[in-house]
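Reopening this one. Same input as before:
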Amino acid sequence: MLNFELYNPVNYVFGKGQIEKLNELVPKDVKILLAYGGGSIFKNGVYDQVKSALAGFEIVEFGGIEPNPRFETLMKAVALIREQNIGFILAVGGGSVIDGVKFISAAVHFDGDEASILRNRILFKKGANVVPFGTVLTLPATGSEMNSGAVVTIEATHDKLTLGGSALFPEFSIVDPTVIISLPKRQIQNGIIDAFTHVMEQYLTFAHDAILQDRLAESILQTLIEVGPAVVENPSDYKLASNYVWCATMALNGLIQKGVPSDWATHMIGHELTALYEIDHARTLAIIGPNLYKVMFETKKEKLAQYGERVWNLKGTPDEIAHAAIEKTIEFFHTMGMKTKLSENTTDYKNTADFIVNRFGERGWKALGEKQNITLDKVREIVEMSY
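Same output, byte for byte:
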């Protein structure tokens, strides 16, 4: 097992009716920025619950944070915080809102060009001068409620880039599984596949001796396979909803990543598809992931066979199991409503491989993956196979 440090200070508040605890969790002596997205919180009652819990607090609202939050939009919130001398941010929404708030938190006191936070992938370490924040999760998928990473799009250049660091953990996250009742099926489908692929990025690498980490990852995958199709149809079933939501958090709260290699090439390529074509993030992962496993088959074969045997209960030779495991993954993605070809998601795709390879080259990304063996030629092959 690799050396690691595990640091996660998030107060994770899980279960029905927990939004009412906001008045105990939010600081009372500062002005609060209430940040949210496109308005779904007004339809599902979350806004009213939040405002009721924060009666008597001084609140300034900032709405309109997009799916795949835009740098340009977030900078308006940064300006508002500076102008109003706001001391705490409450993110109410899904991963995009929470990611956006992480950027806002980092950018308010940043000395320099705020876009460089993203372009230079700056890490804000514990003790950095950031604005503290908490979250109320409304769309389980990204695990952003219990990690310190974020992804933000610079609309002007179509760059989808990351930031993070130990200073950017939420102080608390309220996670009530009942909020998924009002979500469209597509968003729940996306959440399942997003969480599933998060696990795969940390699990499907190469054989190592972190036995417990593998078992934890496999248990999350098995649970998502078990509850995924059912929770889409029955989001009011608390057993299904609560297990789905907890899986989404566990998939990316840092625990299963400790002591093991990780990949993340599927995400890096998928981010470009979202930036180019506005394809839902989870759906880009479903497009790229299986083809990456095929192109990198020899590298990942041993782990693919383990995955196929333990998660899908497949039998045969290691090669047979590994190939069948990829096909079972694609079948599951289809069951969850994913269209796994780029041409099924956009008609304007023929130059996609060239664009992505050139973009990676411009950034100096010469190789990706857990072994840094996904070269730009391999990236091209993966993308073209995904057409």
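So the earlier flakiness isn't reproducible anymore. For the record, The chain has a mean pLDDT of 97.
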